Each structure stands twice: as C-alpha cells, then as structure tokens.
Sequence to fold (212 residues):
Amino acid sequence: MPTPTKGHRLGGSPAHERHILANLATALFQHGRITTTEAKARRLRPVAERLITFAKRGDLHARRHVLTVVTDKGVVHQLFTEIAPEFSERDGGYTRITKIGPRKGDNAAMAVIELVRGEPVAAKPRRRARRAPAETTAAAPARGTAAAAEAEVEATEAAAEADEAPEARQAPVVPEEGEAEDVDDLAARDIAESDEDDAEAGDEDGKPAGDA
Fold:
C-alpha cells in the first residue's frame, strides 16, 4: 500500500480512508457539528473547507466535483444553497475544532468540529506602506534644499533690480485727450515770454536784442 502523506492512515486502506472522510464531511454539512476523535477532526478539516470553497463557486462543474465526495444530493443542495452563501465574505477558516477531553474506554482524544456560521468577519489588517530606498530618501531633501536656494537667489536678484531702476518698472504716463494740446500751448507761451524778456533786456542796454 502507498505511504500516507500526513500522519497515520484512517482505516486499513486509502479507499477506506476516503470513505471515512466523505462520511464525516456529509455528517458535518448535515448537522453543522459532530463529535469525533481529534485525529479524524484534523484530517477532516481541509477536506470540508475545500468542499465549501467549491460550493462558493456555485457552477455545475463545482457541484459535480462535490458529488464525487458527498454522494447525498440533499446534503449537496444544502451545502450550495445554505452553507456556502453564509461564507461568501470569508476567505477561509470555515470550521473550528474544540478539544473536549479523552474518551472513556480507550482514552482517545476527542474533539468537536463545527462550522463557523453567523459570526462576523474580522477586518483585514492594513498593510504598511513600503519604505523608499535609502538613496531616494537621501536625494529627496537634497533636491528640496537646492530648489529652495534657487528660489531665494531669484527673489534676491529681483529685489536688487527693483531697487536699482524703480523708474524703469513704472508704466509710462499716457496723456489723456486734450492734454497734448495744453502742453503745446504752454510751450508756445514759454517761448513768447522768453522773447519778450530778451527784448526788454536789449532795450535797457541800448542794443538791439538780436546783436551779440
């Protein structure tokens, strides 16, 4: 006979072990909890949880796969319509094993295996954000310092230019309508007044204003 992969074999042959686990899984799905030996409960847990995972898929292929293990169609229908929807938000851990002490007679370790139904699902812990590499972390402050220094230099140069040529930065004054004519009149009046002053000065000296 082939060597079992985990622990001791239940029964006398691999086929007998498969039938034992199938019968235990059928009873578990039918009643919700069963009392058996601790060794059988531990071997039953992965089988039952795998069948529940297939039942959560709900397609025809999954139903036919479950029927190869659980031959009772009524239990399979209960598994797909009642049990699997209750575990739709749970990713695993559909069963619980509780030790209840030794059995009278042969002192075998006994346990109760049951379906975890009607219990809230614990929230998944948040994953911590991955830390950036040391080189990236060191380069980030350096880049920020260089950018701040450049900004400070630009601000200083702009302030110096503003102090040196304040008039250049002022917008030219555009005369409004009518102001240009007033400027021309004032210029002509100044020229006439200056000519009159020169003429008076020439009369006082006894020479014409045009002679040097």
Remarks:
- The longest helix spans residues 134-164.
- The first strand starts at residue 33 and ends at 37.
- The beta strands are 33-37, 95-102, 109-115.
